[in-house]
Give the backbone structure.
Amino acid sequence: MSTNAQSVSHGFPMPVSPRMPARGTKLGPVSVDQLDRELSTRVSKVGLSDICLSYRSQSGERLLALDNINLQVRAGEFVCVVGPSGCGKSTLLHLIAGLHAQTSGQVLIDGTPVQGPGTDRILIFQEHGLFPWLTVAQNVEFGMKMKGLPKAEREEKMRYYLRLVHLAKFEKSYIHQLSGGMRQRVAIARALATEPDVLLMDEPFAALDAQTRDLLHDELERIWSETGRTIIFVTHNVREAVRLGDRVVLLTFRPGRVKSEFPVSLPRPRSLEDPEVALAARDVLDELREEINRSLEAEYKEGTKPHIDPGVQA
Amino acid sequence: MKRAGRYILFYAALLGLWTLLAKLKIWPPYLFPTPWGVGESLYAGFQDHTYWIAIRVSMQRVLIGYGISVVLGMILGLGVASNKFLEETMGGLLVSLQSLPSICWWPLALLWFGLNQNAILFVVVMGSLLSVTLAMEDGRKQMPKIFGQAGRNLGAKGFKLFWYVLLPASLPFIVSGLKQGWAFAWRSLITAEMLYLSLGLGQVLMMGRDLNDMSAVMAVMILIIALGYIVDGIVFKSMERHLQNKWGLTPA
């Protein structure tokens, strides 16, 4: 999977329909019918079809958290999902990871419905996802150990992935001895070590300081281009989404719906400070602002912070 | 060093008071022995191997009984914590059972198992099982959910999930319960041993009483205290310290 560093198109990203054909699809003079057929036979890496999730609130009423989400993610694509807090974007990742079940609709991986967790999709949490009772090395080896890989192979891969995130020297450290940025790099190494096709990242850099985050953006972009994984990255930071993603998907506030999608075809490697990134982010932000306002309104009305499924969000 | 000084001062004062009371002969010497009388008894007991045998027998029993409680307690505790129905029904039963002194199981144990070692083990298990169960249940609830999610996400399920994720993740929360379970197991064992010719420390204690040998009684009491304290201070303290180092928790 290339990083598309050569495709230098500076067009402003425009909202497009969720059914927009994947980049690289030949857009010759084809009939809509033909295009439709091509799209349906072409199996995407991750397919969300008509995902709905409702839950019962403490007062007993049924609340809709996710409403009819449709999203197709190509193999090797880097998709960022943004939305106001409480839009259910983290919940969406948990559904893809198979840690929770949707009320209706399907999560498809290579066309096969997801049934529970699987090591083909690894979720990276915002924080605390690492096991504090294990060393860095044991954390990275954990998934492979569960799979039953022999020790020699595990160690070899563990070293490879720790080198990939520049933490080779910290094999024997415990998690609490590392800084926040190092911890997230361990989490990335641990996720990659199970060799998943899809990396699901739930605001992984939200708790880090700006400098560390910049560094990790660069590292993630490099790792993504070296390993060719499919990444679905959830964030509330639009600039971050535009800086990282091939595509930015905007969700609405409660219930979460796909409001619009913005393809980002800026050249890589990018930087948060690039004026093109800032410009593209402004477009997304304009639309996001409406949703943020709705979420703030709801917050004032309820007098509480919007809160979706405490078991998932926390 | 100041602390060590205070310890020495306190125990010296205690021994002094004891000696003084013994010397005053308010009570006859066979009811109130001097400290060195107790020391001599201790020495003699170790010399003729009575205490060594008693310690070995008692420790063996308490380890088996406690081991059974830990395994059963963890399974029960996890079960209760992970099932709403069990939590509502059995949870309450477990708490109420805790008010029953473990020796109350002795008559039942005698009828079920007969007058033998198994009856003693049963009392030990009943004494510590509830502490371990309740601690495990509590630990499972306090443990951050994210560990279980991360474990399942990385392909752990069933027994592997329990053994490699849920159990180590809840250890810092259950260590105090395990410690309490140990204390209960030790107490239950000595109580049960006192009721039955059993070779253990409890029986040696009762033997002192039967022989009207107060210094032997006090020597065995000191032994029981010392052994309980050593396990608590060495095994559990080092376990806590180990966990704190790994997790980066500050000592409480």
Notes: The mean pLDDT of chain B is 86. Chain B touches chain A at residues 144-147, 149-150, 152-157, 160, 164-165, 168-169, 171, 243, 245-248 (CB under 8 Å). The CA atoms of residues 63 and 185 of chain B lie 9 Å apart.
